[in-house]
Amino acid sequence: MTQLIGEFECKLDAKGRMVLPAALKRQMPHVERDGLVVNRGFEKHLVFYPREEWDLMTAKLAKLNQFDPKVRAFVRAFTRGATELTLDAAGRVLLPKSLLEFAGISTELVLACQFNKIEVWSKEGYEELMGEGGVEDISSLAAEVMGDINFGL
């Protein structure tokens, strides 16, 4: 599984293209050949998956019970707008206008790596999320989320 790290500020050009940062490309050695997949995030953002990670995710979804209406609804919502992205000769990807509108992204954006995927936020949305009042006190959140996990320490 890919383990991506970093946070990158980027800008869209007038056509909705974004240059993938070199430091991020280095972490995904096959991105120029295999490309990325972008889809809607759970909040008001987008998510980039390296192609191999998207294939792993959809393989898991395909194993779910397709006779369950909740499964079908989730799969529809999760894959809605999913689009393959390929890098052009200048290392840019063209983001679909409908997805940019969904995420409220106009010009400035933030790429925030999360293990095997990259969250794509409008700069304003990300600052609001991560700024004061946007994320609970990290200490309390850590205790609640991680408190019962034994790390063998």
Topology:
Elements: E1 7-11, E2 17-19, H1 22-27, H2 31-34, E3 36-40, E4 46-50, H3 51-62, H4 69-79, E5 83-85, E6 92-94, H5 97-103, E7 108-114, E8 117-122, H6 123-130, H7 138-146
Antiparallel strand pairs: 1-7, 2-6, 3-4, 3-5, 4-8, 7-8
Please supply descriptive tags for the structure shown above:
Chemotaxis protein chec; two-stranded antiparallel ribbon; 7 helices; 153 residues; six-stranded antiparallel sheet; alpha+beta; 37% helix
Give Rg in angstroms. Answer: 17 Å
CATH superfamily: Transcriptional regulator MraZ domain
The main sheet orders its strands as 1-7-8-4-3-5
What is the correct CATH architecture? 3-Layer(aba) Sandwich
Overall number of domains: 1
In total, the number of strands is 8
Shape: globular
Give the biggest beta sheet.
6 strands, antiparallel
Total of helices: 7
Binned strand content: 15-25%
pLDDT < 50 runs, ≥5 residues: none
CATH class: Alpha Beta
Structural class call reads alpha+beta
**Looking at CATH, which topology would you report?**
Chemotaxis protein chec
Distance between the termini: 25 Å
Mean pLDDT: 93
Order of helices and strands: EEHHEEHHEEHEEHH
Amount of helix: 25-40%
